Known about the structure:
mainly beta, seven-stranded mixed β-sheet, 11 strands
Amino acid sequence: xxxxxxxxxxxxxAGDSLRLSCTYSGRxxxxxxxxxxxxxxxxxxxxxxAVGWSSGMTNYADSVKGRLTISREKxxxxxxxxxxxxxxxxxxxxxxxxxxxxxxxxxxxxxxxxGTKVTVSS
Length: 122
């Protein structure tokens, strides 16, 4: 069984930085590709970033390129968020799938964390 636990969310001001963490437990971490998604109130869950398990290749939504960075170390995947904007306000979810691709669709991910809330004030 794979379990994902996010942390690091909070209330920040526009222009601030925040780093989210997702700790993985279960099967071999390096066998899973990891992704971050976010869901704002009244909206559907959207892709943010992903990192492949073997290649380390990354993929980003256009809206976050240059500001958010995904990385992984040991059993943790991080999302470094810089120059935060009010439109980044959402619940951020960590997700995993047992493949090599950096999928952007939520349906491609099998395991999900409970989410961590990020609020960016203007």
